[in-house]
Amino acid sequence: MSTVTQATSKHTDTAQAAVVFEGVRKRWGQRTVLDDLSLTIARGKLTTLLGPSGCGKTTMLRLIAGLDLPDAGRIVIGGRDVTRLGAQARNVSMVFQSYALFPHLSVADNVGYGLSVARVPKRDVAARVEMALARVGLSACARRMPHELSGGQQQRVAVARALVLEPEVMLFDEPLSNLDARLRVQVREEIRDLQRELDLSVVYVTHDQEEALAISDEIVVMEAGAVAQHADARTLVERPANAFVASFIGNANFLALPVLSCADGRAHCDLSGVPLDLAWNGPRIVRARIAVRPEALALEIIDHFAPHRGLAGVIRRATWLGRSTHYTVETTAGELTVSSHSLDRPLAEGARVAVTLDARGAHLLGEAS
Question: Could you tell me where in the chain the CATH 2.40.50.140 domains are found?
Answer without folding.
Answer: 252-367
